[in-house]
Amino acid sequence: KRHLISAADLTRDDAVRILDTAEEMARVADRPIKKLPTLRGRTVVNLFFEDSTRTRISFEAAEKRLSADVINFSAKGSSVSKGESLKDTAQTLEAMGVDAVVIRHSASGAPYRLATSGWIDAAVINAGDGTHQHPTQALLDAFTMRRRLIGRDAGIGQDLSGKRITIVGDVLHSRVARSNVDLLHTLGAEVTLVAPPTLLPVGVDHWPCEVAYDLDSTLPKSDAVMMLRVQRERMNAAFFPTEREYSRRYGLDGERMAKMPEHAIVMHPGPMVRGMEITAEVADSERCTVVEQVANGVSIRMAVLYLLLGGNEPAVTHARTTEE
Length: 324
Ligand code: CP
Description:
Rossmann fold; 2 domains; Asp/Orn_carbamoylTrfase_sf; amino acid binding
């Protein structure tokens, strides 16, 4: 494959290969010098038209660990603010000889347009587009689940068959939820969405998952509970329950977390709104993997870049580090 646009484009074998490669990349992070020469001489542009902390920083860390030349582009402060189009921006990058473009955009479909337009020759990686997809987030979430629920070594070659994953909250605006439902289904997990009816998208009954409205009865049957951020910035206030009502019915606090099985984990893609969808007590508990997810994001993004751009380079475990 040349691009990574949607989690739905990945087969089970593609996804397991990325997760396994990410485990190899994570071993690099355990070394004193955390660099591989794999992408030396290749140029990657991080093209961010929308705000980001985790995704932008972890792509940059992944690119640098693979020795790529990195160009960071933020729409704020660029000629986009003067009205320059995506096409002209892309062609400007193409003229500079770019090998891969990591793009985040508020418009659903922007990465697909970039990959299929013929404007550029580079590999395109979707770092989140509108309410559509965020495939590397779903991959890092699956990686975190596999490690925590199966084990770091025991998980190699495995999918998530039989694992029960509950995704809670603002599904309507969530590219994280869409990507996770697609990928988790491909990996054999059973997914349940729990959300207020006003925060569920039209057509959700055709998604490969269950829908429930009672969080308390779903928690005891969950191996992982993924809390979503309430995306006020994309929301028509008329459709939103009050903050207090939302927290009461869909927020995760210590009392609710106690209803989960002992082995079950709490996940959140970040950024979290503490006190709204998750209390500080839960966010800071040992069962919450939010910081682990960020660290795993670097390994996943290294794996994706390596598999898309590494070509015929040797497998990572046999590659020489820059210290050798
Ligand atoms: N999870 C996630 O995409 O976070 P950022 O918006 O900070 O990149």
